[in-house]
Amino acid sequence: MYVCLCHGVSDKKIKRLALEEGITDIRGIKKCTALGSQCGKCVKMAKEILQETGVIQYQKAS
């Protein structure tokens, strides 16, 4: 699903950056993508995705 419609950033891209690159905050995602640089409506959803991905990482570790 697209999280940032303005720049075409998907939930898969955010999850991939979190899991493969270790980026776990919005500031890091913004450095790699254009997320939130136009209308900003996507930032809240991106934060939720990062939180969910953190849970996924925790479950994989245990």
Automatic annotation (TrEMBL):
It holds the Pfam family Fer2_BFD. The keyword Transport applies. GO terms for molecular function: 2 iron, 2 sulfur cluster binding; metal ion binding. Its cofactor is [2Fe-2S] cluster. The keyword Iron applies. Keywords: 2Fe-2S, Electron transport, Iron, Iron-sulfur, Metal-binding, Transport. Gene3D superfamilies: BFD-like [2Fe-2S]-binding domain. InterPro entries: BFD-associated_ferredoxin, BFD-like_2Fe2S-bd_dom, BFD-like_2Fe2S-bd_dom_sf. Residues 2-52 form the BFD-like [2Fe-2S]-binding domain. It comes from the Bacteria. Belongs to the Bfd family. This is Bacterioferritin-associated ferredoxin.
